[in-house]
Every structure is written in structure tokens, then in C-alpha cells.
Amino acid sequence: MSNHKIGIRRVNVEKILLAAEKIFAEKGYGSTAMADIAEEVQLPRSNLHYYFTTKSELYSAVLFDLLELWKQDALSFETFDDPRVVLSSYIRAKMQRARTRPYGSKVWANEIIHGAPTLGEALDESLYDWAKMKEAKIRQWVEDKRILPVEPSSLLYMIWASTQHYADFDHQVKILNDHQPLSDMQFEKAIQTVTGVILRGIGLQP
């Protein structure tokens, strides 16, 4: 396959995944048809099936694509050592992802709420070791007295809950903001607030 064709394929797959995120989030897996996604991405249904044979295959691709994006958002754990820099960078990345990919977060939440019926054991393989590596770094910070004593998994859960709230409950956020989406300035203040509360809770200054 030529580089040109590979490029076209990559672009089309990305468009399909984004469209599928939106439809799965709005309708749920059971109520979504491949035709709905084809209409959203403006491709003939036959073209959609060329890339993804079944709805189940496409749904799995959406979920694993999201997981890879969230792993990218956590690269600060590998790039830096300073807990303030690592966590500030991670929270900002998670908040920005919640704003730019809210449908994906909702699809993920729905899958997990229902016991990960699609991901199944693959979730253990993809998520467990990755999360444990992050917990180990946090635990080392505690042992080195660089942050206050904290249960590493609970800190991660708090970050995930605080940041993904802006995606999973964006309608509620909009209602409480006088029925308007958060402006860029408001969202920046939200990032600073979440970051400040979490960092101060473990003995760090933002």
C-alpha cells in the first residue's frame, strides 16, 4: 500500500472513530446502527464496512483509541519527576481532553458502568499495568516525603473524576453556567481550580 493510500486510510479511520464516538454517546451501543455512523461521517455504508466489518469491531476500536489517548495524556509521569510538574501537566491534559473529546469520555463511562462487556479481559491487559506504574511513582513520592501521605489509587481516581466531570456532565455544567458553554477563560480557571485543590491536598503549591 502506498504512503498516499495509507494517509487516506488514516484520515478516514480517524473521521469514522470521531463520528462513532458521537453517535454511541448520544444513542448508546444498542440503539446505534452502522447506518447512523455512516450518515454522521458522510460515507456510504459500504465504505464504512470496508474499514470496520461490524458495529462491535468499531465500538471496540473507539474504546481502545480513547485509552491510547488517555495514556498519551499521562506521559508526564514518564517525562518528569517533580510531582508538581507531573500532576499539573496530567490534570491539564485530562481537562483539555474532556473539552475536546467529551463524547469519547461518555462512551467510556457507559462501558465501565456496565461492567466492561465489550472490553472484557482486554481492559485488564491494557489498563492494569499502566495504572500500577502510575501508582508506583506516586507511592515513591510519598516514601521520599515529596508529597503528603496519600493512597495512590485514590489520588488517580480523584483526578479522573474531577477532570472527566467536564465531559460526562457537560450538560449540567452548561446549565449551571446560565445555559452557556464555559468560555476559554472560564475553562482555564476550572483547570487552575482543580489543579490547585488537588496539589494543595497533597502538600504542594500550584
UniProtKB/TrEMBL annotation:
Residues 33-52 bind DNA. One of its GO terms (molecular function) is DNA-binding transcription factor activity. It holds the Pfam family TetR_N. InterPro entries: Homeodomain-like_sf (IPR009057), HTH-type_TetR-like_transc_reg (IPR050109), HTH_TetR (IPR001647), Tet_transcr_reg_TetR-rel_C_sf (IPR036271), Tscrpt_reg_YcdC_C (IPR013573). It comes from the Bacteria. Keywords: DNA-binding. GO terms for biological process: negative regulation of DNA-templated transcription. Residues 10-70 form the HTH tetR-type domain. The keyword Electron transport does not apply. The keyword Nucleotide-binding does not apply. PANTHER family: HTH-TYPE TRANSCRIPTIONAL REGULATOR RUTR. This is HTH-type transcriptional regulator RutR.
